[in-house]
Amino acid sequence: MVVNFKVFKKCSPNGKLSLYLGKREFVDYLSGTEAIDGILRVDQDYIDSGRKIFGQLICSFRYGREEDEVMGLNFQKDLCLVSEQIYPPQKTDSNATRLQERLLKKLGSSAVPFTFNFPQSSPASVTLQQGKEESGNPCGVSYYIKIFCGENDSDLTHKRSTICLGVRKIQFAPTKEGRQPCTVVRKDFLLSPGELELEVTLDKQIYNHGEPIAVNICVRNNSNKMVKKIKALVQQGIDVVIFQNGQFRTVIDAVETQDGCPISPGSTLQKVVYLRPDLECNRERRGIALDGRLKREDDQLASSTLLTTPDVKDSFGIVVSYAVKVKLYLGALGGELTAELPFILMRPKPSEKIKLVPSESVMIEDVPEEKNKE
């Protein structure tokens, strides 16, 4: 089947530079991240004048509200991950990708290919949901490609000859399921014989966004206390690694029930409750982690952050996790018994389709001007 090949295009305000990208989402496979393969088209005036064009891949971390930036205070840090001269080209041994080959044929001799690679430990794109009264750029981690004209890569840039195009670094759910989450917790009482046992099991480890979670609860009351109610909830954990105490927990969905209660001494209760981690019921809640998004896209809860090892956390990132908690309430004197089970919430990897594309059939989509990233 022959289909059109979609390419994103963004021009500098003076129209002298044009950036072309085949996609704006790049997948992190833990072992490595997809490379950014693009094309820069330079106007003939710039070619004749001998100007130098530089390209950078920048990770931007905003950790405070933009409207609070007063008297020189800045709550944003930009880290340049890749910086190189694109024109005149300095690399001659790099192999062009199929996308670059097709664009080079279409754009002619004024087009130059370039490739940027994400560092191994770079974080995924995550933003924190703003409140109704907030404006400006949201807190979180974002990426953008910066193309500019200058004498060197640290030269002051001019807006008229600069392109900033946002891109996103994402992760997809593993194709192989892990072990089924299960935990058993027990509580004994100082002045009472016996113990209370709570067993919690999830139907699987990996869930897609919007998919219901079946929580199997089994309570064995071998004490002389009485369980008055049960509460199950999904909790989103945010670990802002740049802060020493930057850990936040937010309840995404919760179910409270007294069905089958009170659970009297010597009895057992087994039941299944369903939870659905979804953004629809949390759109008014400030500080919830969302997947980093591009313009004209719908928001969704941030996917779980997958790490090769726990000690690989980057000092520039936000680590997102999810867990199911089940609480048994025993009254004012009996206290509570809590069990917690982590799980993974992610998007599934889309199926790959083979596309046969003629070089002359390329759809170019112009990216509208966005707020300057600088």
Automatic annotation (TrEMBL):
One of its GO terms (biological process) is negative regulation of phospholipase C-activating phototransduction signaling pathway. Keywords: Sensory transduction. It comes from the Eukaryota. Residues 192-350 form the Arrestin C-terminal-like domain. GO terms for cellular component: cytoplasm; rhabdomere. One of its GO terms (molecular function) is G protein-coupled receptor binding. Belongs to the arrestin family. This is Arr1 protein. The gene is Arr1.
